[in-house]
Amino acid sequence: MGLVLTSIAILEEQLKQERAARISAEGALTRFRDVVKTEAEQKKHLSERILAAMMSAPDAMALFDENDLLVAANKAYLSANGDGENRIEIGMSRLDILKKAALTGLIDFNGKTAQDWFDETAPNWRSEDFGESTLQTTDGKWFRITTRKTKFGDSVTYRVDITAEKMRALELEQARKRADIASSAKSAFLANMSHEIRTPMNGVIGMAELLAETDLDEEQSLFANTIRNSGEALLTIINDILDYSKIEAGQMELFPEPFNLEEMVLDCVRLLQSKANDKHLDLLLDYDMFLPTGFVGDVGRIRQVLLNLISNAIKFTQTGFVLIRVVGVTANDTDYKIHIAVEDTGIGIPSAKQAQVFSEFKQVDHSENRKLEGTGLGLAISKKLVEKMGGVMWLDSEQDKGSVFGFKIGLKSQTDEYYRQPTAPKEIYNIMIVDDLEQNRTILKKQLGALNLHAYEYSNVDDAVAAFKNGTPCDMVITDHQMPEQTGEQLAIQIRELGFKGPIFMLSSDLRNLKMSSANAGCFTAILQRPSLRDELYKSLNCVFDASELGGQPMLVESSALCNLENLPVLLAEDNKTNQLVFRQMTKGLNLNLTVCGDGPDTVAQYQKIMPKIVFMDISMPGFDGDEATRQIRDIEKMNNMPPTPIIALTAHAMAGDRDRFISAGMDDYLAKPLKKKLVYEMLERFSPTLAPEQQL
Ligand code: ADP
Asked: Where is the signal peptide, in residue numbers (predicted)?
């Protein structure tokens, strides 16, 4: 009995457990059904919400299937073409919709016919070419149409009204155009103003210069010189103001191009050499021995900055020297940081005033400055130019001791123009350097050191002669010309008398005033302009031992100042009668064979007739201008296999950077009007054909 009871209890327990399990499974099923139902409802609800949002969106939206048939679209899309025949309906193809849009007359076809517009536009609307396009309607509205593909192969198109955005862009564009017109008008005004002022100034300064050279009493000569000096001062002011306003107007552009840095620095030195000579100042150049010469940069602007610094240094120095140092450091093979410093032994600038010299119209108030003309704009312009080139400018000065103005700019070097390692002739090793100025001796020693030559330095002729007598080894002598006690000429005479047969070079910064008897000149092997390119000195050294014998006339004379220009055929192309007269008068003493013509065609005709050795070419001339005349002359030369004739542009439009423009137009250099006698002479001397050695000195 007991066993039966136990079995029933077990059975009941099993039944209980099975019931509980069934109830729990039914509960799970119901819950599952509930979840599925809610999710389906939620999905439906969500799609309805999305559809409602799409319908009420202000921008047009449409959904196309993979066959490009319209599946859904909102009100903004459907109503775009209006009712009636052109109505858009679900199920239409994208191209049909486009065709209908074309026929409504709502779209601005930009002068095209509806058919042409459709043919042009249709390919862009194919569903595989998705992207963005803009559309203008005849009521002046603009729309951006964007189409994107969905992951189901459908494509959705949005059309957004961008009229306000377009209008703003249009206004901005118009404002930019107006600003461009105003700024080019300003540039043209500046250039014209420069031209208009320079032309009459040419008459004033040129004539005053000529007048000052005639027989005048003291008072008259004072008046004539005052007119000339004031005219020149006025021109400097005009140039500075023009440059400054260009920088301020943001119109200063840089034109980087390959150039030779050493030649450019030397050009600046030579240009200002006569000013330094007038004040008996030594103008020295120390170009880093290991720095290449070929770089890429805006040579016109770098020259402008350097000229400003050197002319300031000369202006504010009464005795001593002005030394230009060019050094460079390189981070890799092509990127150089070039440091150019101009050091003088002048009046200096008190430390409290140093910051202000770079500001506009700021001059240090000292007696020197009151005597000297200037605008106080030069350094402000230079600093801005250097900064525009990505560089910095600096100043180090001590009152009454001197100043160093310098700037640092980054320039890329040109590998093909790398400075080649020079060599010295094997016959020389020991060189005697005689110069009263320590800086000059140091520079020369460095230059000779690069050739592995050994230099003995002497600061005066007596010491050099004594050393020579004492048997100091000497294969060659390089001497300065003007020294306090005895000159280089006297040194040469003495050591030749002592039987020295080797080469003697003289370096002079004032070849123009070098007067020497031919007997004394015969003591020298070469007379060179100082400073000169490192290469020129090395070339001259190497030439010496090519000469069959020493003595007689110096074989190298680095100055055409000593040339005779008599009867040199020169062509002047200049339409302005006053300027013609100024040029004639200026060159009267040289007895040139001068032909003058007043327009472009006549210039070319005269060129062919007289075959001049030098042409001075005005730029603005009737017929055709100087650029065209130069082009024609260069063509004639090429056709006839003739060497190019030096052509010097004459221009009243002298903006900085012009020299490079003229050179690229086929000319050799340029002179800014008003013409200056000294500069005209320098050009004639520089470009006149080299004469045979016996005609020199
Ligand atoms: P400007 O030379 O036309 O007066 P700058 O801007 O070139 O104008 O120079 C501003 C001032 O800086 C000069 O007037 C002068 O007082 C001072 N200055 C410039 N360079 C030197 C220098 N090398 N030595 C002494 N003072 C100088």
From this structure: none
Q: Supply the DSSP string of 663-675, one letter for each residue.
A: HHTT-SEEEESSP
How many angstroms separate the CA atoms of 278 and 658, rounded? 28
CA 243 – ligand 1 centroid, Å: 17
Mark 205-240 as b/e (b = at least 16 C-beta within 10 Å): bbbbbbbbeeeeeeeeeeebeebbeebbeebeebbb
* pLDDT at position 176: 92
Instruction: Give tens-digit pLDDT for 292-343.
Output: 888 999 888 899 899 999 999 999 999 999 999 999 988 777 789 999 999 9
Which candidate, 414, 146, 111, 126, places its Cα nearest to that of 258?
414
Q: List all residues whose CB is within 6 A of at least one atom of ligand 1.
A: 308, 312-313, 316, 344, 346-347, 349, 357, 363-364, 369, 374-380, 403
With vertex at residue 672, the alpha carbon angle to CA 668 and CA 676, rounded to the nearest 5 degrees, is 105
- Please report the pLDDT score of residue 296 as a whole number: 92
In this structure, are residues 455 and 449 in contact, taking their beta carbons and an 8 Å threshold?
yes
**pLDDT band at residue 474 using 50, 70 and 90 as cut-offs:** very high
Whose tokens are 């005639």? That residue is 214
- Residue with the bigger pLDDT between 546 and 444: it is 444
Among 228, 236, 208, which Cα is nearest to 672's? 236
State in Å: Cα 576 to ligand 1 middle. Answer: 36
DSSP 127: T
What spacing in Å lies between the alpha carbon of 363 and ligand 1's midpoint?
A: 6
Q: How far apart are CA 505 and CA 388, in angstroms?
A: 43
Return the amino acid letter for 17.
Answer: Q
344 neighbors 325 (Cβ within 8 angstroms): no
Nearest CA to ligand 1 atom 22: 313
d(CA 116, CA 473): 95
- According to the model, what pLDDT value does residue 99 have? 81
Give the residue whose CA is nearest to atom 9 of ligand 1: 376
What is the model's pLDDT at position 549?
Answer: 41
Task: Compute φ and ψ for 211, nearest 5 degrees.
Answer: -60, -40
Residue located via tokens 């009007």: 673
